[in-house]
Design a protein that fits this description.
The structure holds two protein chains of two kinds.
Chain A: E1 3-13, E2 18-29, E3 34-39, H1 45-52, E4 63-66, E5 69-70, H2 76-86, E6 87-91, H3 102-107, H4 116-129, H5 145-157, E7 163-167, H6 175-190, E8 194-198, H7 202-205, E9 210-215, E10 218-222, H8 224-230
Chain B: H1 2-11, H2 13-51, E1 58-61, H3 66-71, E2 73-74, H4 88-96, E3 100-113, E4 116-120, E5 127-137, E6 142-155, E7 158-163, E8 179-181, E9 186-192, H5 194-201, E10 223-230, E11 237-246, H6 250-259, H7 269-278, H8 282-293, E12 297-305, H9 307-310, E13 319-321, E14 327-329, H10 335-338, E15 346-347, E16 352-356, E17 361-364, E18 367-370, E19 374-376, E20 379-381, E21 385-389, E22 403-411, H11 414-422, E23 434-435, E24 458-461, H12 465-469, E25 476-481, H13 489-503, E26 508-511, E27 516-524, E28 528-536, H14 539-586, H15 591-621, H16 625-652, H17 663-670, H18 672-702, H19 707-745, H20 747-755, H21 760-793, H22 798-829
Parallel strand pairs in B: 9-24, 10-22, 18-27
Antiparallel strand pairs in B: 1-25, 1-26, 2-28, 3-9, 3-16, 3-25, 4-8, 4-15, 5-6, 5-11, 6-7, 10-24, 11-12, 13-14, 16-21, 17-18, 19-20, 23-28, 27-28
Helix pairs in contact in B: 2-14, 2-15, 2-16, 2-19, 7-8, 14-16, 14-18, 14-19, 17-21, 18-19, 18-21, 18-22, 21-22
The chains are: A alpha/beta, B alpha+beta.
The structure holds adenosine-5'-triphosphate and magnesium ion.
C-alpha cells in the first residue's frame, strides 16, 4: 500500500492558544518502501504518524490516501477498522499491558473479533518467528527491553498489516538489541511491507530507503549524504 | 518547612478535601447514628408503655386451640366455642394471690335464641296478600332467611277467610289483623364476675347479683337469672313487609272453595292444615296457592321494620306496630295516637343453647381457608352447631329448677370500646375484617354458623355458669398484675413470674401486654378472601427484639462501611503520595524526615475534621454526652486504623502478580488493590439492603401489620433511611472512586486499544464485563448473606426470596447502566 499525503495540516486547539504543528505536509511513500522521519523533539513527528494512521483527525483540507482509502474523510469507526486490518503501530515504550503475559499481549488486538484458540495459535507462531516463544508466559515486567519490543512487534504483526508505523521503537534499546529489532523490521519490509520509521538514531538511517526531515511543521526530503555531512541529527 | 506544608496541601488539595469531608461524615454520622439508635430504642419503649398495657396483662385459658398453636396468633372468635376447662376453685386461687389485682373470669354460655315473639300489623282495608321477607347480611351480601306469604280476605272490613303457611297457624289471623312471628335469632350470652369485671372495665355490673322475684311472665316457681343487655349489640335481621291489595270478591273465593271441594264454611287455610299435618289434599292446597298467588294486585305498599335495631334480644316487654308501621313499646302505646292495634304476645322457649364449633381452618400456601359446610336458606354456614338442651319444662312436675334469663339492665359499652379494643379479645367488641379485594367491611350474619362471631349480647353472673356448663365452666380469666404502671422491663419480669406460677396450675397463660391485631388472610369458601384482624400475643416483646436486630444490623453495617470507605481512601491517598515520598528520598530527605512530614500532614487533616465535626455536632445537638462519647470512640478508631495502615502499606507495596490463563482474571488480580475495598463495601451494603428489605417484608407479615407494630415501624424507618442512605452513599463513593482510579491507571491502555483499532463498543463491553465480574459476585453474595441473616431471625417464604432476587437484579442493572454511561463518557473525552 502506498501512502499519498497532500497539504496535511494539524492544529492543536486549546482554550489558551492555537498551535499549528503540521503545516501543509505533502509527501508520498511507495509500497514496500522504508521511510525514515527525523526531526527535533517537538517538531511534530508523532503528530504526523497519528494523523496519517487516523488516530487523530487532521485539519480540514488535508488529504491522506493510503492505498485507495481517503483516511481524511473516513469516520472514526472506519479509521479504526482500517488501522486494525492494515497498520501495525509500535512505540518507544512498547505499550504492553502489565496484567497480561507476553502471549496474551500479542493476542490482544483481535480479542473481541476472533476466536481465542485461533489467536493463541497465531500468537505462538509469531513469537516463534521473532524468537521469543520461550518468554511467552512471562509478564511484561519480567522481560528485557528488547524482548518487550519484540513482543510489541509480534502484537503489531498479528493482523499481518501492510504498513508498519514505528515511533522511535529503538529509542530505549542498546545497540545490539536495537540491531536485532531493525533486522526484524528489515525482514518485514522485504516481505513487502511499507515502513514509516521515526527516529533520532542515525544508524537506523542505513536501513531506510529515503529520509524526511520534520522541521517546524514542514516536511522535507533530505538526501542521506547531505544529512550525514551537513546536518548531524540533534537530539 | 511551613511553606512546604502549605505547598503540599495546595498540590494535593482535591484529595485532602475529600479526606477531610469523609472524616467529617464519619465523625458526625457515627455518633449521630449511635444517638439516634439509642433514642429510637427509648422511643419504642415509651410507645409500648403508653399503648400496649391494655386492660389486663395475662390471658389464662385451659389450653390453646390448634390453629393458635400453629400460627402464634389468637382468632377473634376464640371464645365462641366455650369449652370451659377452668374451675371456680382455680379462679379463686388466682384471685386471692396478692400480686394479682384483678382476675376476671369469662364463661361463654353459647347462643340463646330470642324469646319467640309475634307482632301484629295494623289493619288494612280490603283483602290483602302479605309477603314478609326476613333478611340478614354479612355486611357485603344480603341473604334471605325466610319468606312467608299469607292472605287475609275481607268483606265490608270483616274477615271472612285466610290462607297462610302452617308456621303461622294460631298466629296469623288473630283479632282480624295480620300477625307474624319474628324468626329465631341467636344471642351470645357470657358469664362474668361483676366485681372483677368492674375493676377491669369500670362498668358497674352489680345488678347481676340481685335477686329477682315475682315476674309474672315466667312460671312462678322457676329461677330468674338477671341479665344485662349490651346496648350496642344488634341482630342483623331486617323485616320487609309487602302488602298487596287484592280486588277479589267473597263470591270468587267461594267459587275457588267449590273448585277444591271445600264447603263455604270451611277456610282455605284448612287445606294447608290437611296437607301439612295429615298429608291430605296436597294437590288442592297447591291449586289454591297458585290461584291466590297469581291474583293481580291493584295496589301495593312496602314497609321495613327493624325490630332488632330497636329491641334488645332479652327484652320481655311487648312491642307494637303503629298505623305508620313504626315500632312502639307497649308501655308507651296510646291507641288514640298510634292507632288501634293488638299487642304482640310471646312465650318462652329458652331451654336450648346453641354452641358453634370452631370453623374448620385449613392451612394454605398464603394463609388459611375455611370450608363452607352448608347453607341455611341462602346463608352460608361455616361452623357446625351443637344444640344443648340444658333443661326441660315438666308440665306436671316441679319446675323450680328451671332457669330463665331476665333482663334487668342495659349497658352501653361504647365509650369503653376504644380502650377495650386496645386489648383485643374483648368480649364486647370484635374487629371483623374486610374483603381483601374490595375492602368492604364484614360482620357476622344473625346465624351462629357464621364464620365471624357475634360479640356478647347479654351478660350474666359467673355464679350461674356451672348450671349451664358443669364442673369447670370458665373459658378464660383475664388477669391484671398489681402495682404496674406500664410495660417496662421490670413490669415484664413481674408479669412473666406470675404467668409461670399460674402455668404450674396446669393452665395455659399468654402474656397479653403488647398484644395487638395482626391481619391474617383467610380464604372463606363462598365469601372470598377475607382479611381478619387476629391477635398476636406478647407482641411488645417481639417488637423490641426485632427492633434491636434492626439497630444492631444497621449500626454494624454503617460502621463497617464507613471504616472501609476510610481505608479505601487512605489507600488511594498513600498510593498517590508514594511517588512523592520516593522523590523526596531521591532529593536527599531522610526517611524519618519524610515520615514526620507526612504525619504532620495527616495531623492537619485529622485536627481540621475533628474540630469541624465537633462544631457541627455542637451546633446541631448542643452538648450531648452520649454523642460526645460516640464521637471520641470514632476518632480513636480512625486514628488506630490510620496508624496500622501506614505501617502495613509499606510492606504490601511490592506488587506481586502471577500469569493468569484468563484475560479477565488477569486484570482483576492485577488491579485488585482498587477492587478489594469497593467490593467488600458493596457486599456489606447490599447485604444490609437485602436484609432490611427482606425483614420489612417478613415483618410486615408478622409484626408491623399489628396496630402497634406499624406505628413503631414507621419510627424506625426514618432512622433506617438516614443510616442506610449514608451506607449507600459511602459505598457509591468508594465504588466510583475505585473504578475511576482503576480506569485512570489504565488510561494509556485504553488509548492504545484505540490505536490498535478496537471499536468503542468493544472497549466498553470488555470493561463492563470486567467490572461486572467482580461487582456482581459482591452484590449476589451480599444478598445471599442478607437472606441468611433474615432466616436466622424470621421464617422466610418464597415471596421474600423473590423480592430479594428483584432487588439483586435491580442493583446490578443500575450498576451496569452507570458503568456504560461512565465508559461512554471516558471514551469520548478520555479519563480526566
Ligand atoms: N494533544 C496535544 N495538544 C496540544 N499540543 C500537543 C499535543 N500533542 C503534542 N503537542 C505539541 O505538538 C508539538 C509536536 O508534538 P509531537 O509529539 O508531534 O513531537 P515529536 O516530534 O514527536 O517530538 P519527540 O521527538 O519529542 O517525540 C509539540 O510542541 C507538542 O508539545
Ligand atoms: Mg514523538
Amino acid at each position: 500500500m502506498d501512502i499519498n499525503v497532500m497539504n496535511l495540516s494539524k492544529t492543536y486547539e486549546s482554550n489558551v492558544e492555537q498551535k499549528k504543528v503540521l503545516d501543509q505536509v505533502t509527501f508520498k511513500v511507495n509500497k514496500g518502501e522504508w521511510v525514515n522521519i527525523i526531526g527535533r523533539s517537538g517538531s511534530g513527528k508523532t503528530t504526523l504518524l497519528k494523523c496519517l494512521s487516523g488516530i487523530m483527525s487532521a485539519d480540514r483540507g488535508s488529504i491522506i490516501n493510503i492505498g485507495d482509502l481517503p483516511i481524511h474523510s473516513k469516520s472514526e469507526e472506519d479509521r479504526r477498522e482500517f488501522r486494525r486490518q492494515h497498520i501495525g503501530y509500535i512505540y518507544q515504550d512498547y505499550q504492553l499491558f502489565p496484567a497480561y503475559t507476553a502471549k496474551q499481549n500479542v493476542m490482544l488486538p483481535e480479542l473481541p473479533y476472533q476466536n481465542e484458540s485461533i489467536l493463541l495459535k497465531r500468537a505462538e507462531e509469531l513469537m516463534e518467528q521473532l524468537n521469543i516463544e520461550h518468554r511467552q508466559d512471562a509478564l511484561p515486567n519480567q522481560l528485557s527491553g528488547g524482548e518487550q519490543q519484540r513482543v510489541a512487534i509480534a502484537r503489531a504483526l498479528l493482523n499481518n498489516p501492510d504498513i508498519f508505523v514505528c515511533d522511535e521503537p529503538t529509542g530505549n534499546l542498546d545497540r545490539s538489541t536495537r540491531d536485532e529489532v531493525l533486522q526484524i523490521l528489515k525482514q518485514l519490509q522485504e516481505e513487502g511491507r511499507t515502513i514509516l520509521f521515526v527516529t533520532h538514531d542515525y544508524d537506523v538511517i542505513e536501513y531506510g530507503d529515503r529520509i524526511f526531515e520534520m522541521d517546524d511543521g514542514r516536511l522535507e526530503e533530505v538526501s542521506q549524504k547531505t544529512l550525514i555531512i551537513e546536518k548531524p541529527i540533534k537530539n | 518547612m511551613f511553606s512546604l506544608h502549605v505547598q503540599h496541601i495546595i498540590n494535593n488539595k482535591k484529595s485532602i478535601i475529600v479526606m477531610i469531608l469523609m472524616l467529617i461524615v464519619i465523625f458526625t454520622l457515627s455518633p449521630t447514628a449511635f444517638k439516634m439508635v439509642w433514642e429510637g430504642h427509648e422511643q419504642v419503649n415509651a410507645d409500648i408503655t403508653d399503648f400496649s398495657r391494655g386492660d389486663y396483662d395475662l390471658l389464662v385459658r385451659a389450653s390453646q386451640s390448634e390453629i393458635e398453636r400453629e400460627l402464634g396468633v389468637v382468632e377473634e372468635n376464640y371464645l365462641g366455642v366455650g369449652n370451659g376447662g377452668i374451675t371456680y376453685e382455680q379462679w379463686e386461687n388466682i384471685k386471692k394471690d396478692p400480686r394479682i389485682e384483678t382476675a376476671a373470669p369469662v364463661a361463654s354460655l353459647g347462643f340463646f335464641t330470642k324469646i319467640d315473639q309475634m307482632y301484629q300489623l295494623p289493619k288494612e282495608e280490603g283483602s290483602n296478600r302479605y309477603t314478609v321477607s326476613y333478611k340478614t347480611t354479612d355486611g357485603v351480601n344480603t341473604y334471605l332467611i325466610n319468606q312467608q306469604t299469607a292472605y287475609l280476605f275481607k268483606d265490608n272490613e270483616v274477615v271472612y277467610d285466610y290462607f297462610y303457611p302452617i308456621e303461622l297457624m294460631n298466629i296469623f289471623g288473630e283479632f282480624d289483623n295480620a300477625n307474624f312471628e319474628i324468626p329465631s335469632s341467636y344471642h351470645p350470652v357470657i358469664a362474668i364476675d361483676p366485681q372483677e369485671e368492674k375493676e377491669l372495665t369500670g362498668i358497674d355490673f352489680s345488678i347481676l347479683n340481685k335477686n329477682i322475684n315475682n315476674v309474672q311472665t315466667f312460671p312462678e316457681e322457676s329461677q330468674l337469672i338477671p341479665l344485662i343487655d349490651i346496648a350496642e349489640s344488634s341482630t342483623p335481621i331486617t323485616t320487609e313487609v309487602l302488602i298487596e291489595r287484592l280486588d277479589i270478591t267473597h263470591q270468587e273465593i267461594n267459587d275457588l272453595k267449590q273448585a277444591v271441594d271445600l264447603s263455604p264454611n270451611q277456610s282455605l287455610s284448612d287445606l294447608e292444615y290437611y296437607a301439612e299435618l295429615r298429608g291430605e289434599h296436597v294437590e288442592e292446597r297447591d291449586e289454591v296457592k297458585e290461584a291466590l298467588d297469581t291474583i293481580e294486585e291493584t295496589d301495593e305498599q312496602v314497609h321495613i321494620i327493624n325490630f332488632f335495631e330497636h329491641l334488645s334480644p332479652f327484652e320481655q316487654e311487648w312491642y307494637m306496630i303503629d298505623d305508620d308501621y313504626n315500632i312502639v313499646m307497649e308501655s308507651e302505646y296510646d291507641i288514640d295516637e298510634h292507632g288501634e292495634a293488638g299487642r304482640s304476645s310471646g312465650y318462652l322457649s329458652q331451654n336450648v343453647i346453641y354452641k358453634s364449633l370452631s370453623p374448620k381452618y385449613q392451612k394454605t400456601q398464603n394463609g388459611l381457608s375455611i370450608e363452607l359446610l352448608d347453607y341455611e336458606g341462602e346463608i352460608p354456614i361455616h361452623r357446625d352447631l351443637e344444640q344443648v338442651q340444658f333443661q326441660e319444662y315438666d308440665v306436671n312436675g316441679d319446675n323450680s329448677d328451671l332457669l330463665n334469663l331476665f333482663q334487668v339492665d342495659t349497658v352501653t359499652v361504647g365509650e369503653y370500646v376504644d380502650s377495650l379494643a386496645a386489648s383485643p379479645m374483648g368480649i364486647y367488641h370484635y374487629q371483623y375484617g374486610h374483603l381483601k379485594e374490595t375492602g368492604e367491611q364484614l360482620k357476622p350474619t344473625h346465624h351462629p354458623g357464621s364464620f365471624l362471631s357475634l360479640p356478647a349480647n347479654g351478660l350474666i353472673s359467673i355464679d350461674w355458669a356451672d348450671e349451664f356448663k358443669g364442673e369447670a365452666p370458665i373459658d378464660a380469666i383475664r388477669v391484671k398484675v398489681a402495682g404496674l404502671s406500664g410495660y417496662t422491663e421490670e413490669a415484664s419480669q413481674k408479669i412473666q413470674h406470675v404467668a409461670e406460677e399460674i402455668e404450674e396450675m396446669g393452665l395455659h397463660v399468654d402474656i397479653v401486654a403488647g398484644a395487638s391485631h395482626q391481619n391474617i388472610d383467610v380464604q372463606v369458601e363462598g365469601i372470598g378472601m377475607v382479611v381478619m384482624p387476629w391477635t398476636t400475643l406478647g407482641a411488645a416483646e417481639s417488637i423490641i427484639n426485632s427492633w434491636n436486630v434492626f439497630s444492631i444490623v444497621i449500626s454494624i453495617s454503617f460502621i463497617l462501611v464507613a471504616l472501609l470507605s476510610f481505608v479505601a481512601r487512605i489507600r488511594t491517598m498513600e498510593h498517590e503520595l508514594y511517588e512523592d515520598k520516593i522523590r523526596l528520598g531521591l532529593i536527599g530527605w531522610k526517611p524519618s524526615t519524610i515520615q514526620t512530614f507526612y504525619r504532620a500532614q495527616w495531623g492537619i487533616q485529622i485536627v481540621l475534621s475533628v474540630v469541624l465535626s465537633l462544631v457541627i455536632l455542637l451546633l446541631s445537638f448542643g452538648i450531648d454526652i452520649l454523642m460526645l462519647i460516640g464521637w471520641s470512640i470514632t476518632i480513636f478508631i480512625v486514628m488506630i486504623i490510620h496508624a496500622s495502615f501506614t505501617v502495613l502499606y509499606k510492606q504490601k507495596n511490592n506488587k506481586t502478580h502471577k500469569p493468569r490463563q484468563s484475560f479477565l482474571i488477569a486484570n482483576i488480580y492485577y488491579y485488585r488493590r482498587h477492587i478489594q475495598a469497593a467490593s467488600l463495601q458493596l457486599l456489606f451494603s447490599t447485604s444490609v439492603i437485602a436484609f432490611l428489605l427482606t425483614v420489612q417484608q417478613v415483618v410486615s407479615n408478622r409484626i408491623s401489620v399489628t396496630d402497634l407494630g406499624q406505628y413503631i415501624h414507621f419510627q424506625i424507618n426514618e432512622l433506617q433511611i438516614i443510616l442506610l442512605l449514608s451506607v449507600v452513599l459511602l459505598t457509591v463513593y468508594t465504588l466510583s472512586e475505585s473504578i475511576y482510579r482503576m480506569w485512570k491507571e489504565r488510561e494509556e491502555q485504553i488509548e492504545f486499544l484505540k490505536v490498535m483499532g478496537w471499536q468503542n463498543k468493544d472497549i466498553r463491553r470488555s470493561y463492563t464485563k470486567e467490572t461486572l465480574s467482580w461487582v456482581s459476585p459482591s452484590v449476589v453474595m451480599g444478598n445471599i448473606i442478607g437472606i441468611i441473616a433474615v432466616v436466622v431471625f424470621f421464617p422466610v417464604n418464597l415471596t421474600v426470596v423473590g423480592i430479594n432476587l428483584i432487588v439483586t437484579l435491580s442493583i446490578l442493572f443500575a450498576l451496569t447502566i452507570v458503568l456504560k454511561v461512565g465508559l461512554r463518557q471516558i471514551l469520548m473525552r478520555g479519563v480526566s
